[in-house]
Design brief:
This is Tripartite tricarboxylate transporter substrate binding protein. There is one protein chain. It is built from 13 helices and ten strands. Helix 5 crosses helix 13. It has helices at residues 2-7, 11-46, 63-79, 94-102, 115-124, 132-135, 160-169, 184-196, 208-217, 227-235, 283-297, 300-308, 318-339; strands at 52-56, 83-87, 109-114, 136-152, 175-178, 201-204, 222-226, 239-244, 270-278, 312-313. It folds into three domains: 2-46; 52-145 and 272-339, Bordetella uptake gene, domain 1 (D-Maltodextrin-Binding Protein, domain 2, 3-Layer(aba) Sandwich); 146-262, Periplasmic binding protein-like II (D-Maltodextrin-Binding Protein, domain 2, 3-Layer(aba) Sandwich). By secondary structure, the protein is an alpha/beta fold. Strands 1, 2, 3, 4, 5, 6, 7, 8, 9 and 10 form a ten-stranded mixed beta sheet that branches. The relative contact order is 0.16.
Length: 344
């Protein structure tokens, strides 16, 4: 019997049998472990196996939408991935971000976030419960742009100095439209107003496109918007750019003065755009998307297309972008408090 051979029989034979059993057992365990380890690697290597949703937190036609579709189209052409834009506007872009936070961390839900809804909105909206440094993973910085103040070409205001002078004589009578409460653009106007010692009347809209339509119709005196949102109408001669809210002029609007030139050097407000995904999205997917986006930004043709929309392309590694978000998230808490801006 085997048992007797193992325990009471020939010792060398028993050792041989046990060695065979041990080797077979180890091989079986090793095969199983390799299969388990290979599962995630194969799953990641196969990504993407279906279309990727790109959430756009603002309506069609605005600066965020323009850049989202530009990057989405270029990324699809370069990688053969299918990116499907999904506009989820409202509440200064925070509704779209919340949609991304709730999504599964599988790499099939991305969002084009910006300073507005990630580092400003959470300090203005009591209903916002997400923390961009905890609930999202920063994937790829895409571009940045200053804020521009414009008016209709037939407006009585020819310069920003004229606007400030008129606002001092008649506080709270000059209106300005913005893409929404709690956006960087809204805050830029409030910060400038405080620095200049004036009071403008804010009229919030659900996105830059709606605000632009009302500005073109003369329903508001001024429009405060990102350069990408306003550039087409400025180039068409329908809107006049009065100033950009940055320390230096925009390369897209070299003839338009920066507010620093008007004596308000403390006003330096710009916004940035970048791709994010739900927290716990696999690092391999994050790294892959970042690499593809950075390749695009290094392309002269893509860089030129972004600049033509009024923005400046800038590539970052995921950890660099995450550090930027974290720093500005904490900085803007005090900026919002000092501005006195509130969500109506």
């Amino acid at each position: 019997m085997v048992a007797s051979a193992l325990f009471f029989g020939d010792a060398s034979r028993g050792i041989t049998v046990w060695r065979t059993i041990l080797i077979k057992t180890l091989l079986t365990l090793l095969t199983a472990l390799c299969a388990v380890a290979a599962g995630p690697v194969q799953a990641q290597a196969a990504w993407p196996e279906k279309p990727i949703r790109l959430i756009v937190p603002f309506p069609p036609g605005g600066g965020t939408d323009i850049l989202s579709r530009l990057i989405g189209n270029e990324l699809s052409q370069a990688t053969k991935w299918t990116l499907v834009p999904d506009n989820r506007p409202g509440a200064g872009g925070t509704i779209g971000i919340a949609e991304a936070v709730r999504a599964a961390p599988t790499g099939y839900d991305l969002v084009m976030g910006q300073k507005d809804n990630l580092v400003v909105g959470p300090w203005l909206y009591k209903s916002v419960s997400y923390d961009p440094t905890r609930d999202l993973v920063a994937i790829a910085h895409v571009a940045y742009t200053p804020v521009v103040i414009v008016t209709r070409t037939d407006s009585r205001f020819k310069t920003m100095k004229e606007v400030i002078a008129a606002a001092r004589k008649a506080p709270d009578t000059i209106t300005y439209g913005s893409p929404g409460n709690g956006t960087t653009i809204h805050l830029a106007a409030e910060i400038l107003s405080k620095a200049a010692g004036i009071k403008l009347r804010h009229v919030p809209y659900k996105g830059s496109n709606a605000a632009m339509m009302d500005a073109l119709s003369g329903n508001v005196d001024l429009l405060v918007a990102s350069v990408p949102s306003a550039l087409a109408q400025i180039k068409a001669g329908k809107m006049r750019a009065l100033a950009v809210t940055s320390a230096k002029r925009s390369s897209s609007l070299p003839d338009v003065p920066a507010v620093a030139e008007l004596g308000y050097k403390q006003v330096d407000v710009s916004t940035w755009y970048g791709l994010f995904a739900p927290a716990k999205t696999p690092q391999a997917i994050v790294t892959r998307i970042n690499g593809e986006v950075n390749k695009l930004l290094a392309s002269p043709a893509v860089a030129k297309a972004i600049q033509e929309q009024g923005a400046e392309p800038k590539a970052m590694k995921p950890e660099q972008f995450a550090a930027l978000v974290k720093t500005e998230y904490h900085q803007w808490k005090s900026i919002v408090e000092q501005s006195g801006a509130t969500v109506e």
